[in-house]
Inverse folding.
């Protein structure tokens, strides 16, 4: 039995749900998801902390194996279900994808997280709009780096869809939403044609829209 702990609205849980969809596992009767985090609670209970001492989501249980950190879960699942032949396990392909996964979590998301949480979680009276706008504009700069790469190839890693595309597309979804819903709070979003082409391609050719409601 595969058990995924985490609420569906979490970007990190969505990474795993999308991968499950790509691997054809969402409808598997041996898979279940348990809501945890934010208003669902659970993630700070002693029982959960035994699984994930960070008290964060997602956490994946695969029998006796317990894995946390969303990108680590993605790498584990791709290797476990290599027989699905959905993602290349070629060393160069994996390394090219890995660098974007690390970039997303260490460079891009720390900037994008500030306007995302600031405008969707923090009460209006407590928002730091200067920090929100500055961080969103830094996100613009970072996305322009990705846009430059996508001018040369179909996907972030190469000509094949891979894990790096999953984690980045989920960030793009939030980047677009923020600028559409809070244009006066974020400042303008850069018009990046290569990201737009890539994002539309992913929406049409992968399980993205099916997995992320």
């Amino acid at each position: 039995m595969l058990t995924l702990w985490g609420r569906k609205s979490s970007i990190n849980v969505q990474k795993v749900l999308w991968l499950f969809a790509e691997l054809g596992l969402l409808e598997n009767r041996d898979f279940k998801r348990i809501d945890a985090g934010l208003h669902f609670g659970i993630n700070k209970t002693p029982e959960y902390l035994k699984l994930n001492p960070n008290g964060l989501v997602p956490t994946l249980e695969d029998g006796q194996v317990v894995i946390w950190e969303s990108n680590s879960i993605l790498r584990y699942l791709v290797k476990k279900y290599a027989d699905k032949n959905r993602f290349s396990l070629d060393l160069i392909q994996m390394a090219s994808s890995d660098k974007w996964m690390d970039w997303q979590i260490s460079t891009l998301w720390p900037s994008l997280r500030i306007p995302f949480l600031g405008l969707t979680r923090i009460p209006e009276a407590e928002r730091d709009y200067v920090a929100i706008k500055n961080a969103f504009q830094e996100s613009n700069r970072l996305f322009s780096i990705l846009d430059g790469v996508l001018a040369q190839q179909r996907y972030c890693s190469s000509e094949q869809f891979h894990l790096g595309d999953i984690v980045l597309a989920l960030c793009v979804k939030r980047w677009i939403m923020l600028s559409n819903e809070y244009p006066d709070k974020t400042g303008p979003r850069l018009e990046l044609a290569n990201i737009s082409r890539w994002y539309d391609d992913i929406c049409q050719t992968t399980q993205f829209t099916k997995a992320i409601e």
In short: The longest strand covers residues 2-5.
